[in-house]
């Protein structure tokens, strides 16, 4: 009855039935059903916007499901905790619970796969794994052959050096005593051993770099998979069914229902923006810099065209005020830095003034220095470093949209170039963001 009342929107009735179900389960010593009833009660509280009570019960359900080793109930509890944290705009906590949710879902999937897998499926899986391992072995074999060729080349070079050393020693045999000749031979052998040790150390470093590269790629692939399949797919489902429900209700929807739909649309849009920014943030260090020479003015002219609709919607203005003719950097990533800084300059504006973003730059000899100046609301000094941390926001989403990751992405990109980023600002008098890119 509690679940039916949830579906029908009778949340107080659902809460009452859920509490009764939990008491019955407790009396008959059915702990899993007791937790399930607690989760339904939490859903009813959440739908009534009683967030603090819902959060406490969701935490209780999560703790009990952990002690009981009930992964499906744990997944339901974590979903509620993430939704409650997101509703309270505590995105750091929401991200924490989402991370736990993904791990719990993966545990459930693994259990389902182990239960559902038949002998034929197991055989097919083993064959696929063998093919993958053979491909990996072939790849490693090719790498090993390349390393062996390098070692052979070094050994041949060392052998030639040894032959030359032996010939030199032979010429001295007639003039020097046997002991002195043996001393020369020992020194030659020590030199050869040093060369071999250096070659071995070099190969070990290359292997470590290769392993680190493989681990990094695997982490990136795992993250991209989780973000696209475990986050984007259910989000698209929510959006699609919300739109279908809204169209189905049509003119029969009252004002309160329309307001609920608006809340759902805002939440899904914000969540989608958060997912996109997380992907962008994670990919910065996992992609190598593609350094090239390009014109900053040309890049910014293209960016102005791309942002023209956004700027018009905010009645803003972008002005270029002197730029270096050419710089060497990763064009795509520097474009991302300029885009984030300019959109912030236009977005965080004072309502009484036309939003203005002034972009300038100069050649300082050893480095290039760029600045993006605005006439916006300004930032207090105590937040000048904090705003470059991930998920840090100085304003609520009711006032300004965004995930709070734009400046952290800028900092990662500038750091990857070996540069620095900082700002000068006063509250009510606008801000100027500077970033420096070294030439070397």
Describe this structure in words.
The protein has helices spanning 2-8, 11-27, 31-47, 51-68, 71-87, 91-116, 119-173, 178-249, 255-283, 296-306, 308-313, 331-347, 406-416, and strands at 291-294, 317-320, 327-330, 356-363, 367-374, 420-425, 431-438. Helices cover 69% and strands 10% of the residues. It contains 13 helices and seven strands. The strands form two sheets. A five-stranded mixed β-sheet has the order 2-4-5-7-6, covered by helices on one side. It has a two-stranded antiparallel ribbon with strand order 1-3. The protein folds into three domains: 2-116, Serine Threonine Protein Phosphatase 5, Tetratricopeptide repeat (Alpha Horseshoe); 237-283; 291-438, Histidine kinase-like ATPase, C-terminal domain (Heat Shock Protein 90, 2-Layer Sandwich). With 440 residues, the protein is α+β, with helices and mostly antiparallel strands. Helix 2 (11-27) packs antiparallel against helix 3 (31-47) and helix 12 (331-347) runs antiparallel to helix 13. Residues 395-400 have low confidence and may be disordered. The longest helix is centred in the middle third of the chain and has 72 residues, at 178-249.
> In total, how many beta strands?
7
Global Rg: 32 Å
Strand content: 5-15%
Give the spatial strand order of the biggest sheet.
2-4-5-7-6
According to CATH, the homologous superfamily of the largest domain is Histidine kinase-like ATPase, C-terminal domain
CATH architecture of the largest domain: 2-Layer Sandwich
Mean pLDDT: 79
Provide the CATH topology of the largest domain: Heat Shock Protein 90
> Which stretches are poorly predicted, pLDDT < 50 over at least 5 residues?
395-400
The best one-word shape is: flat
Largest sheet, in brief, is:
5 strands, mixed
